[in-house]
# Entry
Amino acid sequence: QVTLKESGPALVKPTQTLTLTCTFSGFSLDTTGMRMSWIRQPPGKALEWLARIDWNDDKFYRTSLKTRLTISKDTSGNQVVLSMTNMDPMDTATYYCARTCGSGGNSWFDIWGQGTAVTVSS
Amino acid sequence: DIQMTQSPSTLSAFVGDRVTITCRASQDITDWLAWYQQKPGKAPKLLVYKASSLESGVPSRFSGSGSGTEFTLTISGLQPDDFATYYCQQYGSYSYTFGQGTKLEIK
# Structure
């Protein structure tokens, strides 16, 4: 059974760096073709893809946020980490990790974590 | 980035109805489109990928169609469990964007 769970701070201050961890089970990110993504959803708004990391450590980022995002993996611990610098109240959202299907540049998200809510406020 | 526009934003229907949600892409995405269902306070659930491929375990009353720039999600014989918000997502060229969502309400 595949499961994913996000963890991290519920509250961060403006200008701080947010670090979120996704811990997963039921598959390995070492396996050829495996990928993981982070997606967020501001309250009452639509979903927004943020970043993707592949089994071979290739990384892809949302163009508009590329300078603020870093995605990494710890395959031994079955974890994927997302860092976002210079947090702003507009970054308040629920952040999801998701197993990512597809090949090449094409990706859809078949299994999602429950999400973790992050509020940016002083 | 490719923009995705869903219509309608809100849809009211009765249990048993057949409903269709439309998603339009700002440029040709061939069949690189997925549909998700989201209930309040829950993560999205994958329903359809590659425009018309039903994800394993999803009831057959859900179906997807379309190619190029226009796509539809059809639910035939609405069940009480289907009242939720639905999102389309395009996934071409290392850039993934979602529609703004369609909220399906009970009439």
